[in-house]
């Protein structure tokens, strides 16, 4: 069955290989979707000030962790494509009835890579990522016990997103998306700071909300394909109205978390004010998706919201550090 899907998709993109192997591997690793990678900038901003106390070992730790993060995430999304190809969900979601998505973004569906090549790419990048994360731990100026647990757990769980135990196929996709972002901020922060911080936890959760919030719009678009393979996202499990309410609640929760953090002292009083542009953009995204009914445009807006949010989170961390150093 998969060979028939691949053959049909291959013909759909012109019957000849449309791009180089290197380009196809880059697409498989989703290098153009880099929105988890700025987690390292958030962690850096949380420890950068005062500059006089920032050590070379901290820089090396963050650099190695970032390099490993890129490779681990590439492995994760490559394995996601392998599973989507095998179960037919990607063929449904990127089929002829969905012209908004280009098949070339899915090299297995487009026929530009074989299944064997995709699996080899995934495991090589995963192994290289593990080596780099081990290096980050080795050179880290601090190794609190919780980070020594978090880093290997993060590695193992990341690869199980839709492969192995297939976390996203058991009703935990939304939790995974935000949890991955949280861990990718907290783990490097712990290694370079040597402590836990409630404020950094708030930053990490709000960072994780970004991938979550364009993920739920993708899930809304992908309901037919996900239902066909038994992938129980919230969008698949509830009614259309129920899904709209769910996404609306998540949008409000993002603002409320910042407000609660400011009110309780976990974050400075000004934090909720600083993050208000994100609230405005998130409301615009929701109206686009669930009032105008343009889910895919709303999904694209989600990338912009996340990037604006990340910039503001970095600014918040720097301002907080400057206040503490004053």
Automatic annotation (TrEMBL):
Q: State the annotated membrane topology for this chain.
A: Multi-pass membrane protein
User: What are the record keywords, sorted?
Assistant: Membrane, Menaquinone biosynthesis, Transferase, Transmembrane, Transmembrane helix
Q: Which GO terms describe its biological process?
A: menaquinone biosynthetic process; vitamin K biosynthetic process
Annotated coiled-coil positions are: none
The record's section on Gene3D superfamilies has: UbiA prenyltransferase
Broad class of the protein's primary localization:
membrane
Q: Which cellular compartments is it found in?
A: Membrane
Pfam families xref list: UbiA
Q: Name one GO molecular function term.
A: prenyltransferase activity
Q: Which GO terms describe its cellular component?
A: membrane
Q: What is this protein called?
A: 1,4-dihydroxy-2-naphthoate prenyltransferase
Q: From which organism does this entry originate?
A: Streptomyces albus
